[in-house]
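Exercise 7.
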Amino acid sequence: MKWGGNITIIAYESETVKKTSGVQTSEKRLYVSSLPTGTPALGSLVRNHWLIESMHWPLDFNLLQDRIKRKSAKAARNPDSIQRRVHSVFSICKVLRKKAV
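Solution. The predicted structure, written as tokens, is:
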């Protein structure tokens, strides 16, 4: 595949604190973009991408969403909707279980 246009490398450093232990970690990630270097808010674009990924990852990890074969775009809506609801129920149960302890 041939890349057309600008090539911008975005270096993004993120810091996270694990809630259970308070351990702080730092990680540097590199992204390739076709946006010009001077584009405002490249950092917010990266953060918005990870908001979506942080929702998708548990669906794929716990419910193997990426492995489901779909025959059409319409057919994909039903299982995806069901899986999101199942994930929401699991998340609520996890929170309630933590509060009960």
